[in-house]
Design brief:
Shape: globular
Radius of gyration: 21 Å
Largest sheet: 7 strands, parallel
Number of helices: 14
Mean pLDDT: 84
Strand content: 5-15%
Bound molecules: NADP nicotinamide-adenine-dinucleotide phosphate
Structural class: alpha/beta
Number of strands: 9
């Protein structure tokens, strides 16, 4: 099995869907001799049973961490860009900030409390609360004046809500939409204005696989992420021949402290069992998910690419590749049955 995974991974760096036409043309010529293996791949092949027992971690976790270990030297294409990144204080945003700073980029990274932001060379702390429109305007315009222009906007910040859909308060739905949709739309519009003036730019909207495969008892979150995904696709349709690129980046489960900030509603007794089962599955998936460096690595690749994909799913093999592929061909009734089985409800 290890050999099979390592062999699959062996093809992955070249098999990324946003390869340039030149990459594609050279595929046949790469078939023999095979490209040199990356150190992480060699380390996977040499793993022994003793490695798993000694570390006390699952095979899956060890392999995921090896696959997520840093790539080779940075491409010159990715050097010295200016980036506006929301939610740089923890999880995925923090991993992106650290990865980009290590590559020499200038990042204007946001938090509601800038004291939570790490001190990194090239990281400029910005105070931003997505629930406050004035804060968004001030944060972006002040940062833009300092940076002069932004090559990349990464709409990453967000938080979740857990509770019964049929009892959701309108205020809670509004709160989720303000943070996950309206705030990011406003930032995207501000960024597009300046990107149109400079003739280029990249916007990465971090939505979620939940936009396509909803998580039970997270209706407001699922709906907000789906709305952001639909809005992103609409702009992709409307951009015409513009050199501006917009990517819908959909993480599957990624190991962060996201669940700690999830607001949990009081649940009626009749639903308690299903809600608890779902929450356990959500926590368990998160604990066994790949680390946020995986997403950061993909962001770097997107920034390096002259033709990034309109949508990219990032996560473990099952959640990010196999499940969405299978569900695409299954009738809706079977999809719902499969998701209920997955969460044990
Ligand atoms: N982890 C996953 O499994 C997963 C899966 C799919 C999608 N995502 C998405 O990935 C993004 C990052 O999540 P994460 O897992 O990295 O979570 P996280 O560790 O909790 O980080 C969330 C970030 O968002 C910021 N934030 C939260 N509410 C905010 C608000 N009202 N205004 C401004 N900033 C706010 C937080 O900054 P401050 O608290 O410092 O303000 C923090 O930096 C989110 O959009 C999430 O929906 C995550």
């Amino acid at each position: 099995m290890l050999t099979a995974i390592a062999t699959m991974r062996h093809a992955t760096p070249e098999a990324v869907p946003w390869k340039t036409p030149r990459d594609r043309r050279s595929r046949k010529s790469r078939a023999a001799p095979r490209p040199r293996m990356k150190p992480a791949q060699l380390r996977i092949l040499s793993l022994k049973n003793a490695d798993y027992t000694a570390s006390g971690r699952s095979r899956c976790q060890i392999i995921t961490d090896l696959l997520c270990s840093p790539l080779s030297e940075p491409s010159s294409k990715s050097l010295n860009k200016t980036i506006f990144l929301t939610g740089a204080s923890s999880g995925i945003g923090l991993a992106i900030a650290e990865t980009l700073a290590a590559r020499g980029h200038q990042i204007w990274g946001t938090s509601r409390d800038p004291a939570r932001l790490p001190r990194l060379p090239g990281l400029h702390p910005v105070q931003l609360d997505l629930s406050d429109r004035q804060s968004i305007d001030t944060a972006f315009n002040t940062a833009l004046a300092e940076a002069n222009h932004f090559d990349v906007l990464i709409n990453n910040a967000g938080s979740g809500h857990f509770g019964s859909a049929e009892r959701l308060l309108e205020d809670e739905v509004l709160r989720q939409f303000q943070i996950l949709v309206f705030g990011h739309l406003h930032l995207m519009q501000l960024a597009l204005k300046s990107m149109h003036a400079q003739g280029s730019g990249l916007i990465i909207n971090v939505t979620s696989l939940a936009a396509r495969l909803p998580v039970p008892f997270m209706a407001a979150y699922n709906a907000a992420k789906a709305a952001m995904a639909a809005f992103t696709m609409s702009i992709q349709l409307e951009l015409g021949n513009s050199a501006i690129r917009i990517v819908d980046l959909q993480p599957a489960d990624i190991r962060t402290a996201f669940n700690d900030a999830v607001v949990r509603d009081h649940i009626p007794e009749s639903m308690e069992e299903r809600v608890e089962k779902t929450w356990r599955a959500v926590e368990n998936n998160m604990a066994n998910a790949p680390g946020p460096e995986l997403v950061a690595r993909h962001v770097l690749r997107l920034m390096d690419s002259s033709n990034p994909p309109p949508r990219l799913t990032v996560g473990d093999m099952f959640q990010s590749k196999i499940a969405p592929f299978l569900l695409r061909f299954l009738p809706h009734r079977v999809q719902i049955w499969g998701l209920k089985k997955y969460y044990g409800i």
